[in-house]
Design brief:
By secondary structure, the chain is an alpha+beta fold. It is 27% helix and 32% strand. The longest helix is centred in the N-terminal third of the chain and has 18 residues, at 2-19.
Length: 164
């Protein structure tokens, strides 16, 4: 009986940790050095580093074009990141949106939501972690944003639209 409970708890813990691991095995709470090393293996190089924020850019690989990484100022662990993908120039039959979306489905499952107004997909990983993703119509790329924070329902969106 105790073995069954322990096995179940370990399985649930493994699933929870797996849900917080994103594309390319980048994970919430990973160290700065770990994340940079993982993305360098994907063909990115550090373009800008101010300590808690790092921008990495394409060093010749596609479809992963760039990444922006945000680290906690106390322990320099990753708490949110943004990936940008572009289509391969010579591949006429390559659809960057399908490529990334299928990778997200494989990594995070088929339980997601669609926002018609923003034209974005959302995965809710747990109470404090979300993924937003969508197509960039201006540059014909596809972006994925792993977030740790989300506005509360009491936030007023009027400030955002005030200048329009």
């Amino acid at each position: 009986m105790n073995k069954a409970i322990l096995t179940t708890l370990l399985l649930l813990l493994a699933l929870a940790l797996g849900a917080q691991t994103g594309l390319y095995n980048v994970s919430y709470g990973a160290t700065k050095d770990e994340v940079i090393s993982i993305l360098e293996d994907q063909g990115l190089e550090v373009a800008e580093d101010n300590g808690t924020w790092v921008r990495m850019s394409n060093a010749g690989s596609v479809p992963l074009d760039s990444a922006e990484l945000s680290f906690d100022e106390n322990d320099y662990t990753l708490y949110q990141w943004y990936l940008y993908f572009v289509p391969e120039e010579d591949a006429e039959d390559f659809d960057v949106e399908t490529y990334v979306f299928e990778a997200l489905l494989d990594q995070h499952g088929e339980v997601y939501e669609w926002d018609d107004y923003l034209e974005e997909y959302y995965w809710y990983l747990d109470e404090t972690h979300w993924i937003y993703t969508g197509y960039d119509w201006d540059y014909y790329g596809y972006w994925v944003s792993y977030e740790s924070e989300r506005p509360t329902e009491t936030d007023d969106d009027d400030d955002y639209y005030e200048d329009e």
